[in-house]
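#help-structures
NK: newbie question, is this the right format to request a structure? protein is DUF1659 domain-containing protein
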Amino acid sequence: MASEFLVDSQLRLEFLQGMDLDGNPIYKTKTFNNLKTTATPENIQNVALAIADLQQHELMRVQRTNNYDIVAG
């Protein structure tokens, strides 16, 4: 039977930087490592919105990436 162990998380914010000459959106991302593995979605949303308030571009997406060690045993 395999077991999963959450080892780390990252926060990724995507901002709309503008439009290209063809009218397609240009996105810029910022990634923050070492997100607490115990952070709740509400905690993450609050932090993301606080960071977004400090930016000049509009926040479009907030993502969390979790990395697990999978151990067979």
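mod (FA): yep, format's fine, and the tokens are attached above. Residues 2-72 form one domain.
NK: thank you!
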